[in-house]
Amino acid sequence: MQKITSTTNQTIKNLAKLNKKKYREQEGYYLIEGFHLVDEAFKSKLNFKYLLATPAAFEKLNIQYQLDLTDKRLIQINERVAKHLSATTNSQDVFMVLKINQPKHFTFNFGKWILLDSLADPGNIGTIIRTADAAGFNGVVLSENCADLYNPKTQRAMQGSQFHLPIIKADLLKTIEQFKENYIPVYASVLDDEAKELPDFEKTKELALIIGNEANGVSDEAVNLADEKLFIPIKGQAESLNAAIAAGIMIYHFA
Fold this sequence. Notes:
The protein has two domains: 2-99, CATH 3.30.1330.30; 112-254, Alpha/beta knot. The protein has ten helices and twelve strands. The protein has helices at residues 10-16, 21-27, 35-43, 55-65, 79-85, 122-134, 152-158, 172-181, 220-225, 243-254, and strands at residues 2-4, 29-33, 48-53, 74-77, 94-99, 112-117, 139-142, 167-169, 186-189, 196-197, 207-212, 228-231. The strands form two sheets. Strands 8-7-6-11-9-12-10 form a seven-stranded parallel beta sheet. The chain has a five-stranded mixed beta sheet with strand order 1-4-3-5-2.
């Protein structure tokens, strides 16, 4: 185990930069924080680059995982360094550095999937992924201009679901075409006169459900490729639903 107590240490300075998208993409690694996320990473048997924690946090981790304390990937830090690395107001004193591992090729020929079209809010993306995981969906596709999957806010909102199901960043239109080529119906969530109410749709063994940008909805190009358009009827005075809430309602309708 290494010990680092200074925020000016070069390793710490480099790891702190992973809270920014530019450096995550440059280095190919990202940082997760907190006991729950680290626990989910251990359960998923992920290979980590570093595990950093304060002495008290390491003691807790060691009881649970019987760590090899001679492993140089383990770095004991103090509370000042933990606060420096943290993306939250109150650090949980434990961090793990993981490799970004996005598959370059994926065949969309099975199951139930969520397709996210240009979602801008990291919290919405993380919540939708977590909901898809809870409902037993097979995976989530992010369009290339969605908010960053490895943003700390997205990671916190996913609560470990990122380790449970495939999350693919891909060209959305080409992905929709793949689903259609494999006879998997594609539904777009939109508000227009041609859309059908969600309760009119029966459950199906396979589908791809497109959720659109918070302000602009699903792109016209994606809507034109979809097999069906659907919407959630609003029964009160609210103009619309939050994207993650709407996605959750639709996900569980088809679960």
